[in-house]
Design a protein that fits this description.
- By secondary structure, this protein is mainly α.
- The chain contains one helix and no strands.
- It is rod-shaped, with a radius of gyration of 15 Å.
- The model has no long low-confidence stretch (mean pLDDT 93).
Length: 34
């Protein structure tokens, strides 16, 4: 495995984490409104 692959993998993981957090936050806001 070369460094480029590792970097790409880290970027994909970071994006996935950001998406998960964004979804959790928006779901939390919806629950708070109702």
């Amino acid at each position: 495995m070369n460094e480029d692959e590792i970097t790409i993998r880290h970027q994909v993981i970071k994006d996935a984490v950001k998406d998960a957090i964004a979804q959790a936050l928006s779901r939390h806001r919806k629950l708070g409104e109702s």
